[in-house]
Records
---
Amino acid sequence: MGNVALEEEVDAVIPAATFHRVQESAEFQELRKRHRSFVFPVAIAFLLWYLAYVLLAGYAHDFMSTKVFGSVNVGLLLGLAQIVSTFAITTWYVSYAGRRLDPIAAAIRHEIEGPLAAATKTSAKKESK
């Protein structure tokens, strides 16, 4: 009792030369360029934003303890903004990846696994008969 598709994935071997060829392809280079052009600037911006928050919390006690309303102060709002910005960046990245990265990645994957996927479908049909 086993999953035929899973067993075939384990048995299938893609030659290393295929991966080297893909890494040198223009499609893969474009995928890397798009990924890095989003991830690096956003990561740097977020780390600077986090560093600013930590420095303000450590050295600007009077500013961070400024009451905004009720017992809510600037430090609490900035802390919550950290959490909100994390979710916003995640949502932004998922949207970006869906539009700009996933189509290229799917094409590359199809290029690598296309013949392999066709062969495994044929063998799965033979085994099920």
---
Amino acid sequence: MRYVYISLIVLVSAVALVFTIQNLPTVTVHFVTLRLTLPLSVLVILVYFLGMLTGGVFVSLVRSWFRGSTSGTSLQPHETGTE
């Protein structure tokens, strides 16, 4: 099984290297007042990691909401002692 993992790592690394070499031209990205010029491959990789980060945060948030709704604890009104 170790050789399968090693071969997958080599394959993914080779694909990433070919992608980087084929996408070296620079592009300019405009966002509000920010202007960023960098190689296309770097931009794609940055956007990919940003998506992983935000997706992971979103999934974690939804899981915590789900756990909170199924844990059986509910918010009770604060007792003031006056009846």
---
Amino acid sequence: MKVLIVESNPDLGQVWKRHLERQGADVELVPGQEAAILALYGTAFEIIVLDLVLETGSALAVADFASYRRPDARVIFVTNTTFFSDGSIFAHSPNACAYVQSGTPPEDLAALVEHYAAGR
């Protein structure tokens, strides 16, 4: 299973990456929109774990590009804000499959990744 993590906080991204790799995933971690777009050009990811609030670039632009370039890739949005807490993210991003808090335990995030990757 190929997973792209787009997370501006390198420590948090590394925690998720290591946990997913222990579960057998092939994981690429990038810090922002530009690196995510470049990664999506070269690799067919099954799941994208995408921080909704990136330091550089736009998470919605990444999700939109992924829906065009990698239409089979599902997006799990993570955030530490109440932005889109009403569930409207699913109306803005057709490839969104989950919306969770950044503080979600890594094992729970890994379970979500595995669940949504299995459906592909």
---
Amino acid sequence: MAEAPRDEVFEFPCEFPLKVMGLRTERFAQTVLDIVLRFVPDFSAENLEMRASSKGKYLSVTCTFRATSREQLDGLYQVLSGHPDVVMVL
């Protein structure tokens, strides 16, 4: 079966949940929010959910926003993945 071209995986604009995981530190959620706002200026912190791991060592931050393009998502993933506080981006 042939794979769909990259641009056909999503229909833009679309609601997109982005989950970012890292060590549970005082500034982790704010760091994620600051990066998301660079790519999604109209993102509202009301659409940010946080959840600590069962032992409290890690924090997942889910930001749901209206994605407008593949380039926007690629840039966001690249910056978040390259940040030293981020363990994983889904």
